[in-house]
Amino acid sequence: MRYLVYILKRVVSLIPVLLGISFIVFFLIRLIPGDPAATLLGVHATPEAVKELRDQMGLEKPLLSQYLTFLGHLLQGNLGFSYVYNSSVLGLIGTSLPVTIWLLVSGTFFTLLIAVPLAVLAAARRNGVADNIIRAVPVVGLGLPAFLLGIVLILVFGLKLGWFPVGGYGDSLGEHLRGIVLPGITVALTLAPIVIRSLRASMIEVLSSDYIVTAHSKGISTARVVLGHALRNAAVSSVTVLGVNIAYLTGSTLVVERVFSLPGIGQQMINSIFGRDFPTVQGITLVFAIMVVVVNLLTDVAHSALDPRVQLT
């Protein structure tokens, strides 16, 4: 019940945040040089045709009037209409959002797959050869930009070995799963080093605790002590680190989507900016904001579930 009450409070607190974001985005995007109507009609359009389309798009009205109209539609669940794609913004987002969510889920999965075993091994072999290698090698991934890591993965596993497609998302579930592997690993390689360092530090602290020493003295195996007792307690702080960085990556997935030609909302955002598609950019920005809040909410809930001492307020 406390989780439900907490979630409802966070949903209510999201309303003024979204209003503030909508206000900022609405006016900032109009600072981008170029006329959406002229861009849509092309260089050979007559001034009369441009003016007529501006009237249809409501661009001739004062900015405040345009914002109030946008806000009224937003409160009705209408994100506007894209003249560039001749479709509702909600429909465009509904088509591309699942791809971005798949990318985030895939990136999180591969991050945990890489980070947890390495962090546990490094903590269990503190200051040993394995620990030094695990601490040194991931720093390389942390220092390289995501687009460069993605290109390297494409060259090696896509073009040279032919294990995975070099771009696109496919049409079937099998093609979706194969197409999301390399983008997910790209995200994981930028995120795993942070999680490894956090989880390793927490594991070392927990392994030196009195209750761990007591568990060893009772004859409990090292594997059971590390995996059954230490890992859960050490994971509490690392969950927060993971959640914060996933929230950060939510808005930066557009780079990975661009490299792998994924039809997600990040890719849609870039195309819409170039096309001066104001309604679509506004709608996608609001969706990104909601996704960040949702990730932070899930992080807080997971933190509370792992550590009952944490009170959700």
Automatic annotation (TrEMBL):
Presence of keyword Transport: yes
Key words, A-Z: Cell membrane, Membrane, Transmembrane, Transmembrane helix, Transport
Subcellular compartments: Cell membrane
Domain spans labelled ABC transmembrane type-1: 97-299
UniProt cross-references to SUPFAM superfamilies, sorted A to Z: MetI-like (SSF161098)
Homology family: Belongs to the binding-protein-dependent transport system permease family.
Name of the protein in its database record: ABC transporter permease
Native source organism of the sequence: Microbispora bryophytorum
Lineage of the organism: Bacteria, Bacillati, Actinomycetota, Actinomycetes, Streptosporangiales
